[in-house]
Fold these 4 entries.
Entry 1:
Amino acid sequence: MPDIISFVMTVYNTRIEWIERAVNSIINQTNKNWELIIVDDGSKEDIAQFCDDMSERSDQIKVYHQDNAGVCVARNYGTDHAAGRWITYID
């Protein structure tokens, strides 16, 4: 398996358009060796559902939900679940 890049994106009641734009920017890049980890940090139900819907677009997108604990906790949670050799954060 080639080295992959893990993108960790934290979401807390983020506008749906911004989430979709960020996800599309990762999906449409030329490098296909990636995973996207979306950590929903206790968003409202419609935002959480939208994140789940985004994960259905690709097996490379994983969504985790947690009670609101703040961006640092959410990033650490995403980092702990990352499989990539390299990790970067999408804010």
Entry 2:
Amino acid sequence: NVSNSHAKAFYMKHGVKSIMPAFENEPVDNAEVMFCKHCIKFSLGWCTKSGAKHAFKEPFYLVSGDGKRFRLSFDCKECMMKVIAE
């Protein structure tokens, strides 16, 4: 994906047929913006793969300094946490 006309021109010159705008320019609802092997549930001792239980109801959210919320999704089978822009 690209965020400026120079990058778009470069990719077009090199034969790229499908160029998507960068998320920063055209946000997509429920976009998975990050995949992490670091897991908040594991860090807090709530990893269900290790048999732990937690008292908090999912979904969990991260909130940035400017108030943007990001939902967390967990793929415990693959030990992966996904950060999703809402």
Entry 3:
Amino acid sequence: LTLGTFQMRAQLLALKTDVLWDVAMTPNLGLELVTSGKTSVGIYGFANKNPWGRKMRMLGAMPEFRYWFSGRPMKRAFIGIGGVIADYEFNFRNKFYDGNAFGGGLTFGYAFYLGPHWSLECYGSAAAVGYKMLRGDLDSPAEEAKYSRGYALIPFKIGVSFSYIIK
């Protein structure tokens, strides 16, 4: 009974959407929960299908742990460590790509207080991402497609998010 006793505190919970992803016709939704006086955890989900009429499909998630320098989560500067996992398929310059990606990296950002329930976040991050995919020419038979895998250092989360703080 003693081991199961802990102090309950009111937690901040926020719903988020990345405006840049919305403009890119990739609907996304994030949820962030404050876990202590200086930390929070969150997860973003995103997906698209044929944005702007182009042959493309993407589905993924990005979990993240953040440390807030100001001592108040969801306000001012933060650093985060996060991951990404995605499944994709798209055509580009007469080639097709079909695969998945996974990885992790660091995020740096700043949250601007807009009101009791609203904030605006600007952030950027870089990640080491592994991928495996099937790629080939659109004009060639599918049997000639090549399987490849590798790693890349990429900017994986650059954006501007609006947050609605529920509590």
Entry 4:
Amino acid sequence: MLNHSIVELENAQSVIVYFRCVDDDLQPLHALERDLSQAIIDAGAGVYDGHEVALLEGDDAYLFMYGPDAERLFDVVRP
């Protein structure tokens, strides 16, 4: 998990990205996590909270991000 502070907001919003993870090599995912976390921090849009990957159960994967404004957070991480 990446080093970050927890968002302490009563009305925190989230951006959750779902994708299929078809490769057991998670290094590209970890690189993406570092980039997402830094972009979110630089924009002051919230925090990147981590991922969940179920490689043995259909290859479902999720990225979790939280902040005060989900639309702003999405705009930051979309590129």
